[in-house]
Design goal:
Elements (H helix, E strand, L loop, with lengths): L1 H24 L6 H69 L4 H70 L2
């Protein structure tokens, strides 16, 4: 029922605005009320256009950022997997080497320990990079949520403007 009354009000407003536009194009003088209604109409049209542009931009930017983050995540995941394979391979090689040359273990133990520390540092660096990426993704999601809230606020403002226009039209329609 509310949708029907909104449609009827919308048609009435559209017809009235068309009449005002026709009057203006014929060179007739517009009253202050007609001029204000025409300004509000063009303002709403501009707002709708800007809203659509903003929505298109945010949708496009969201997809771009999501694709970028997904690509970077996959690259880092591949890098981490490769590094783990390298670490596993190196570990097996070191074990074989130590088994064959047990007598040299004492001499070379420090160098192996340093190499393992370097590998652990690399792993920690990779983990830190992944953590930073997750933080960036969370920040992007927060920004997108904020943009969605702003879009919802703009929609509410548009509904309020439509309600004011409806009231204006009803006041104008009551005037003889």
């Amino acid at each position: 029922m509310a949708e029907i009354s909104i449609d009827v009000a919308s048609q009435l407003i559209s017809n009235y605005i068309k009449m005002v536009i026709d009057k203006a194009t014929q060179g007739k003088k517009l009253s202050n009320q007609e001029y204000l209604i025409l300004l509000v109409y063009y303002n709403i049209m501009y707002t709708d256009k800007r809203f659509a542009e903003l929505k298109d931009y945010t949708d496009k930017r969201y997809i771009e950022l999501k694709d970028y983050v997904d690509k970077r995540f996959e690259e880092l995941k591949g890098y981490v997997d490769k590094r783990f394979e390298d670490i596993d391979r190196r570990f097996v090689e070191m074990k074989d080497y130590l088994d064959k040359r047990f007598q040299e273990v004492d001499k070379r133990f420090e160098s192996l320990e340093n190499e393992i520390k370097e590998l652990r540092n690399e792993i920690n660096d990779i983990k830190a990079r992944l953590s930073a990426l997750e933080t960036r993704v969370a920040t992007i999601e927060t920004r997108l949520n904020n943009m969605e809230k702003e879009i919802a606020d703009l929609k509410d403002l548009m509904k309020q403007m439509l309600a004011l226009m409806t009231q204006l039209v009803s006041v104008l329609a009551k005037k003889p």
